[in-house]
Amino acid sequence: MKTDKVRTIQVSDDAFAWLKEKYLAVDAMDAERYRAFLAEECQLQFGNNPIFNCNNEIIGGIKHFWETINGLDHSFLNVLGDDHHFAAEALIDYTRKDNRIVQIPCVTIIKRNNEGLASSIQIFIDTTPIYK
Known about the structure:
The structure is a single chain. By secondary structure, the chain is an alpha/beta fold. About 25% of the residues lie in helices and about 40% in strands. The protein contains 4 helices and 6 strands. The protein has helices at about 15-25, 30-35, 55-65, 130; strands at about 10, 40-45, 70-80, 85-95, 100-110, 120-125. A hairpin with a 3-residue loop joins strand 3 (about 70-80) and strand 4. The protein is globular, with a radius of gyration of 14 Å. It starts with 7 loop residues before the first strand and ends with a helix. The mean pLDDT is about 95.
């Protein structure tokens, strides 16, 4: 994960550290480490896929997605909002199964509960280039 191109950060240092740790778990494709950032009742919408309604569904879905790629690496551009509701703009380098890397823009909106866990995640992305 890269943060050297971040232009705007409106969240606290603690919230930004939380975001970076969350995406280090994603980029490592470590499902159980990622689960630690999710509230039990978290909902996740990834692109145009069905909504996952709890962290067990999210973990199952993300593991399935990770089986279709060889890796990913987020580069953050902007993090806007406050510590409980924020949007993260990123470029994601996906390593396809043929080891070709494709870069895809993405915006993720995250809502965190009072315990600091994600209660809602909306990922706006078109993953078509991964599979072309």
